[in-house]
Amino acid sequence: MQEVAGALRLDTELSADSAAYIEELYEQYLTSPTSVSEDWRAYFNKFPKGDQPHGTVREQFVLLGRNSNRGQAVATSAVSPAHEHRQIGILQLIAGYRNRGHQKARLDPLGIAPREDVPDLELSTHGLTKSDLDTVFNTGNLAIGQEKATLGEMIAAMEATYCQSIGAEYMHIVDTTEKRWIQQRLEGARGQYNLSNEQKKHLLERLTAAEGLEKYLGNKYVGAKRFGVEGAESFIPMVNELIQRAGAVGCKEVVIGMPHRGRLNLLVNIMGKNPADLFGEFEGKSSSKKGSGDVKYHQGFSSNVITPGGEVHLALAFNPSHLEIVGPVVEGSVRARQVRRKDIGGDDVLPIIVHGDAAFAGQGVNMETFQMSQTRGYTVGGTVHIVVNNQVGFTTSNPKDARSTEYCTDVAKMVQAPIFHVNGDDPEAVVFISQLAHDFRHTFRKDVVIDLFCYRRRGHNEADEPSATQPMMYKVISQKATTRTLYADTLVQQNILGRAEADRLIEEYREDLEAGKHVANALVLEPNNKMFVDWTPYLGHEYTDHWDTSFSLERLKELGRVMHTLPDGFQMQRQVSKVIDERFKMQTGEIPLNWGAAETLAYATILDDGFLVRISGEDVGRGTFSHRHAKLHNQVDGSEYLPLCHIRENQPRFALWDSLLSEEAVLAYEYGYATTQPHALVVWEAQFGDFVNCAQVVIDQFIASGETKWERVCGLTMLLPHGFEGQGPEHSSARLERFLQLCAEDNMQVITPTTPAQIFHALRRQVIRPLRKPLIVMSPKSLLRHKGAVSTLDELATGQFQTVIDEVDSLNKSDVKRVVLCGGKVYYDLLEKRRAEKLNVAIVRVEQLYPYPEKRLADVLATYPNLTHLVWCQEEPKNQGAWHFIAPQLVEGVMKSGRFIKLEFAGRAAAAAPACGSPYLHAKQQAQLVIDALAIEIE
């Protein structure tokens, strides 16, 4: 720009500084047109209307300049070029504070964390000097309530906003509305949190409770592990504020997932667990009525508290020591609650997930959980994440070795979540940032992260000696006053309360603990039980294999016709259309049903019976092997149609979601959903059964052991495509042996069904029977279209799931000396060969491996009076599959029978990998194991 006749003329070339200035003015103009001068407002009116991407403002400005007459003046106030240049520097300085002010903020309560110089916050970086401090400049869009201010006033406001106890990271967010919202809240406050005297007293009371419980436990149970909140006492008023604020805007449920640290304190001081019950656990008294139970800092809890908006139900999720895995479990539980309340992604249910600093940065399940947060099938409308940042991870680590990022929270930037770092020794800042985080989630339905900078006063646990690995840090900690002490001193100095009153809070809390009183000040002692699901109908049942899963034949046919009825003009892809037309014939009884036809009919009948159905996985709409086609795609406009959503009027919800490419987080999510919604069939399907290996922690820590550890029942169904088809070691085995190794105490069901009728009845049994146990289905691949793997509609309409299926051919059982037991796809290989060779060998299918059908199998084998050889045949290598599980069972069964029967194995030799990679070698091995099982002599 150049000055001409007292006005500014457009030049054809803009400097970078000038362009930045124009961008800031333009954004200010968009926010409030009257906040810029009349001349600039007239100029900006030339721009295309609408809130366009601000990254293009520069280019548009240049274009307008190039297309105008060089001699045409743009009217504006007469301002010296030097002042204009400094004004540009002011706007750059504002941007510097917004982008990097957090790097100067006083976040570490210990004051020892290294902080580097931040050049972007220096006057000289932007062409400014101290002599400019008293000069009045335009404030741009700095939200301090005035259009002009001195540079000194602006710096003071920005220092108070961005460089004190709160460090805000939000400029990575693309959405301008979200950024402006955060700016208004932060800059409008300027580090002043405006708590009333009563609010400050209440804050001190909550800090007193947090500290008081830890001191009481430390004195009463010396050396006992409790993973105390000491050093992070502000965590308790933080969670309290989140709950109360959520309740004030109509939230009905808050679901919390968190690790060990501070858990006992939250249970007692927020959720209202009776201190006497906690003391009993320290003294070794178990509250578990059955099973193994678990340590006290893994246990879940639920209660109701009162808030300004009414009663709110709190649920603390059970969690294992594999801490971060509880995150997606919480998200699934929240989604189920939102579905029940018909408020998906809304405000009725709030998830709060608490993390440790090292775990948040180090464990990939957090990335997976963030990635699902805005997807249609998994969104819950945003989560408040709290990182209890000890600054040394698990005490022994150096932050330089714990991550490659500046902050442990940087992973959250992948979904543009705002991150608010806050000093735990400033309780008022903690409360303010809790309000801000909640309100952001409430407004934008997106995740938000609070990074609570604190420290561990006792090390990793109370038996730890942290100075062994962190001598300098713990030298400072040993001399440091607690957060509660510091805040009490502040309130006394402000004459908000006297020293005696502050001390009396300590005594009153200790007296309440000793009296066994509840110390959560918002606890509802007689909660409204309509706020949560009644699980009573699903508890206390003994396991049973048998249940009537029959269904009206005429209604089956009608459902088949309903599912074949598509919207007018809906055009399917040619091959899909052929599948659907053929399925219609199957589901109306014209021809036998294949796997996909029976499975979809099972879902239809379950919906018709009034149960919700949710299915998710990486390719569940079509099915990895193109057998399901439950989601149809219009070839004309790309629209989707799900026939199962249109079974009948007012039917239960049917949800079918092709998931993100994740096993661990998605399976954990579905577990959380299933443990929250009992009146539903919840299904997770692996794209290939092998891929479930990536979610092994979910199976070990939750699915297999959740009931015995936490008395938490779950009816989740897992469909795991399993079978040796010559596709190599990574596409053959869902690791059946691992599931069987985990089986005990009737904790789950493992089946290897071989017919469409079997999967139909197994799925129906899973929900119709009031028992809730995980169901692991080793589902087939080649059997999906195998000519022998078919069932009739009558077989679906009548009967039930068969744990053992006897020989189907008309053999003379008195002549049979050799019986082959098997499960899954190998049955059809054995049957074909047996029939071709016309052998007098019976083939019995064990369709359910666990709970082991001991009586049913014994009854079947008893019908073979001259049995001398009993063979277990499997496709898997000998060290894998079911052999090591079933062999002891068979030996015991033979001994009980009192007969001399030789037990044999037929299968692949023990191997390190599940299968070979050569189709030729695979076929050779398969042929040999069939020959071995049937005892065919080959010359």
UniProtKB/TrEMBL annotation:
<dbReference type="InterPro" id="IPR029061">
    <property type="entry name" value="THDP-binding"/>
</dbReference>
<dbReference type="GO" id="GO:0006099">
    <property type="term" value="P:tricarboxylic acid cycle"/>
</dbReference>
<dbReference type="GO" id="GO:0005829">
    <property type="term" value="C:cytosol"/>
</dbReference>
<keyword id="KW-0560">Oxidoreductase</keyword>
<protein>
    <recommendedName>
        <fullName>2-oxoglutarate dehydrogenase E1 component</fullName>
        <ecNumber>1.2.4.2</ecNumber>
    </recommendedName>
</protein>
<comment type="similarity">
    <text>Belongs to the alpha-ketoglutarate dehydrogenase family.</text>
</comment>
<dbReference type="Pfam" id="PF16078">
    <property type="entry name" value="2-oxogl_dehyd_N"/>
</dbReference>
<keyword id="KW-0786">Thiamine pyrophosphate</keyword>
<dbReference type="GO" id="GO:0045252">
    <property type="term" value="C:oxoglutarate dehydrogenase complex"/>
</dbReference>
<dbReference type="InterPro" id="IPR005475">
    <property type="entry name" value="Transketolase-like_Pyr-bd"/>
</dbReference>
<dbReference type="Pfam" id="PF00676">
    <property type="entry name" value="E1_dh"/>
</dbReference>
<dbReference type="Pfam" id="PF02779">
    <property type="entry name" value="Transket_pyr"/>
</dbReference>
<dbReference type="GO" id="GO:0004591">
    <property type="term" value="F:oxoglutarate dehydrogenase (succinyl-transferring) activity"/>
</dbReference>
<dbReference type="InterPro" id="IPR031717">
    <property type="entry name" value="ODO-1/KGD_C"/>
</dbReference>
<dbReference type="InterPro" id="IPR042179">
    <property type="entry name" value="KGD_C_sf"/>
</dbReference>
<dbReference type="Pfam" id="PF16870">
    <property type="entry name" value="OxoGdeHyase_C"/>
</dbReference>
<dbReference type="InterPro" id="IPR011603">
    <property type="entry name" value="2oxoglutarate_DH_E1"/>
</dbReference>
<comment type="function">
    <text>E1 component of the 2-oxoglutarate dehydrogenase (OGDH) complex which catalyzes the decarboxylation of 2-oxoglutarate, the first step in the conversion of 2-oxoglutarate to succinyl-CoA and CO(2).</text>
</comment>
<dbReference type="InterPro" id="IPR032106">
    <property type="entry name" value="2-oxogl_dehyd_N"/>
</dbReference>
<feature type="domain" description="Transketolase-like pyrimidine-binding">
    <location>
        <begin position="593"/>
        <end position="786"/>
    </location>
</feature>
<dbReference type="GO" id="GO:0030976">
    <property type="term" value="F:thiamine pyrophosphate binding"/>
</dbReference>
<dbReference type="InterPro" id="IPR001017">
    <property type="entry name" value="DH_E1"/>
</dbReference>
